[in-house]
Specification:
Blueprint (H helix, E strand, L loop, with lengths): L8 H6 L1 E6 L5 E9 L2 E8 L8 H15 L4 E5 L5 H6 L3 E6 L10 E7 L3
Parallel strand pairs: 3-4
Antiparallel strand pairs: 1-2, 2-3, 4-6, 5-6
Length: about 120
Amino acid sequence: MVAGYRVGPDYIDAHEVHLAVGADERVLGFYALVLTPPELDLMFVADAAQGLGVGRRLVGHMAERARAAGVSSVRVVSHPPAEGFYRSVGARRIGTVYANPPAVMWDRPELVIAVSP
């Protein structure tokens, strides 16, 4: 799904982007937090790193950053197969974001992650 997707310098300058890096210095995953309005804009974990807790650690870190910024909840528009993961880390489904061809060809679950004070 994300083959060839690039996060460039302009995006990184405008948003909080955080990496999970392995002992071998390879990127295992990353996320981007948008604060206004609060949204987990991007989060990806490398296929080889899935199931190792990397995503759970990234969401935990995101919640800490959001809390530090005074945010009480973070919106997530999820790739449909990732909905179960987000629910497992405490997200609650609040709706559906409908397909917008040609940019996005499928409906996506809309969730919210509460960030406790």
